[in-house]
Specification:
Elements: H1 3-13, E1 21-27, E2 31-37, H2 57-72, E3 78-86, E4 95-103, E5 108-116, E6 119-128
Antiparallel strand pairs: 1-2, 2-4, 3-6, 4-5, 5-6
Length: 137
Amino acid sequence: MTDSSNLTQLRSHFSSAHWPRMNAISSSEHRCVIDLFIAADMHWLQGHFPEQPVVAGVVQTHWAGELAKYLFATSDECIRIDNLKFQQVMLPGQSLQLTLDYSGGATTAVKFRYSHEETLFSEGKLVFNTPAAGSDL
Protein backbone atom coordinates (compact mmCIF):
# COMPACT_ATOMS: atom_id res chain seq x y z
CA MET A 1 0.00 0.00 0.00
CA THR A 2 1.32 3.46 -0.86
CA ASP A 3 1.83 6.27 1.62
CA SER A 4 -0.86 8.24 -0.20
CA SER A 5 -3.46 5.50 0.28
CA ASN A 6 -2.31 5.01 3.91
CA LEU A 7 -2.87 8.72 4.52
CA THR A 8 -6.33 8.57 2.96
CA GLN A 9 -7.25 5.61 5.17
CA LEU A 10 -5.86 7.30 8.30
CA ARG A 11 -7.79 10.48 7.58
CA SER A 12 -10.97 8.48 7.04
CA HIS A 13 -10.59 6.38 10.19
CA PHE A 14 -9.37 9.18 12.49
CA SER A 15 -11.43 12.10 11.21
CA SER A 16 -13.06 13.79 14.16
CA ALA A 17 -12.28 16.75 16.41
CA HIS A 18 -10.65 14.21 18.77
CA TRP A 19 -7.68 13.77 16.43
CA PRO A 20 -4.98 16.05 15.08
CA ARG A 21 -5.02 16.80 11.37
CA MET A 22 -2.83 14.31 9.52
CA ASN A 23 -0.96 16.00 6.69
CA ALA A 24 1.45 13.32 5.48
CA ILE A 25 2.75 9.84 6.26
CA SER A 26 5.96 8.05 5.49
CA SER A 27 5.94 4.35 6.27
CA SER A 28 7.99 1.20 6.07
CA GLU A 29 7.41 -2.26 7.52
CA HIS A 30 8.36 -1.29 11.09
CA ARG A 31 8.16 2.51 11.12
CA CYS A 32 5.59 5.20 10.41
CA VAL A 33 6.18 8.94 10.57
CA ILE A 34 3.01 11.04 10.51
CA ASP A 35 3.01 14.81 10.04
CA LEU A 36 0.39 16.29 12.39
CA PHE A 37 -1.19 19.67 12.98
CA ILE A 38 -2.83 20.62 16.29
CA ALA A 39 -5.94 22.64 15.38
CA ALA A 40 -7.18 25.23 17.87
CA ASP A 41 -10.71 23.78 17.82
CA MET A 42 -9.72 20.25 18.85
CA HIS A 43 -12.00 18.61 21.41
CA TRP A 44 -9.18 17.82 23.86
CA LEU A 45 -8.13 21.47 24.12
CA GLN A 46 -11.45 22.64 25.53
CA GLY A 47 -10.96 23.66 29.16
CA HIS A 48 -7.41 22.27 29.36
CA PHE A 49 -6.43 25.04 30.21
CA PRO A 50 -8.61 28.10 29.57
CA GLU A 51 -5.67 30.58 29.65
CA GLN A 52 -3.41 28.45 27.44
CA PRO A 53 -4.81 25.23 25.94
CA VAL A 54 -2.38 22.29 25.83
CA VAL A 55 -2.65 18.70 24.61
CA ALA A 56 -2.63 16.56 27.76
CA GLY A 57 -0.09 13.76 28.07
CA VAL A 58 -2.83 11.16 28.38
CA VAL A 59 -4.23 12.32 25.02
CA GLN A 60 -0.80 12.10 23.37
CA THR A 61 -0.41 8.56 24.69
CA HIS A 62 -3.93 7.63 23.55
CA TRP A 63 -3.26 8.90 20.02
CA ALA A 64 0.01 6.96 19.80
CA GLY A 65 -1.63 3.77 21.07
CA GLU A 66 -4.63 3.92 18.76
CA LEU A 67 -2.53 4.75 15.72
CA ALA A 68 -0.06 1.96 16.60
CA LYS A 69 -2.89 -0.57 16.88
CA TYR A 70 -4.32 0.55 13.54
CA LEU A 71 -1.04 0.74 11.60
CA PHE A 72 0.74 -2.32 12.99
CA ALA A 73 -2.20 -4.62 13.85
CA THR A 74 -1.05 -5.04 17.44
CA SER A 75 -3.18 -6.54 20.19
CA ASP A 76 -5.94 -4.28 21.48
CA GLU A 77 -4.53 -4.57 24.98
CA CYS A 78 -1.71 -2.24 25.96
CA ILE A 79 -0.33 -3.83 29.13
CA ARG A 80 2.12 -1.09 30.11
CA ILE A 81 3.89 2.08 29.06
CA ASP A 82 7.66 2.22 29.54
CA ASN A 83 10.06 5.19 29.53
CA LEU A 84 7.28 7.77 29.27
CA LYS A 85 8.68 11.31 29.17
CA PHE A 86 7.02 14.65 28.53
CA GLN A 87 9.53 17.35 27.58
CA GLN A 88 7.56 20.25 26.05
CA VAL A 89 3.89 21.19 25.96
CA MET A 90 1.93 20.71 22.74
CA LEU A 91 -0.01 23.84 21.82
CA PRO A 92 -2.72 24.67 19.31
CA GLY A 93 -1.35 25.78 15.96
CA GLN A 94 1.75 23.58 16.16
CA SER A 95 2.93 21.23 13.45
CA LEU A 96 4.85 18.16 14.56
CA GLN A 97 5.72 14.59 13.70
CA LEU A 98 4.67 11.40 15.40
CA THR A 99 7.20 8.62 14.83
CA LEU A 100 6.04 5.07 15.60
CA ASP A 101 8.63 2.25 15.65
CA TYR A 102 7.27 -1.29 15.86
CA SER A 103 9.13 -4.28 17.31
CA GLY A 104 7.73 -7.78 17.60
CA GLY A 105 9.02 -10.94 19.19
CA ALA A 106 8.44 -12.19 22.73
CA THR A 107 6.59 -8.94 23.35
CA THR A 108 5.05 -6.52 20.89
CA ALA A 109 6.07 -2.92 21.47
CA VAL A 110 5.76 0.39 19.70
CA LYS A 111 8.03 3.28 20.58
CA PHE A 112 6.48 6.67 19.97
CA ARG A 113 8.02 10.11 19.71
CA TYR A 114 6.33 13.46 19.12
CA SER A 115 8.81 16.00 17.79
CA HIS A 116 9.38 18.95 15.51
CA GLU A 117 12.86 19.47 14.15
CA GLU A 118 15.07 19.41 17.28
CA THR A 119 12.21 19.84 19.77
CA LEU A 120 11.05 16.70 21.57
CA PHE A 121 7.52 16.95 22.98
CA SER A 122 7.10 13.45 24.38
CA GLU A 123 8.16 9.84 23.94
CA GLY A 124 7.54 6.41 25.37
CA LYS A 125 7.17 2.74 24.62
CA LEU A 126 3.77 1.03 24.47
CA VAL A 127 3.93 -2.68 25.27
CA PHE A 128 1.04 -4.78 23.98
CA ASN A 129 -0.26 -8.14 25.08
CA THR A 130 1.06 -10.75 22.67
CA PRO A 131 -1.71 -13.11 21.55
CA ALA A 132 -1.21 -16.78 22.44
CA ALA A 133 -0.36 -19.20 19.63
CA GLY A 134 -3.52 -20.18 17.80
CA SER A 135 -5.36 -17.05 18.96
CA ASP A 136 -7.64 -15.20 16.56
CA LEU A 137 -6.02 -11.87 17.46
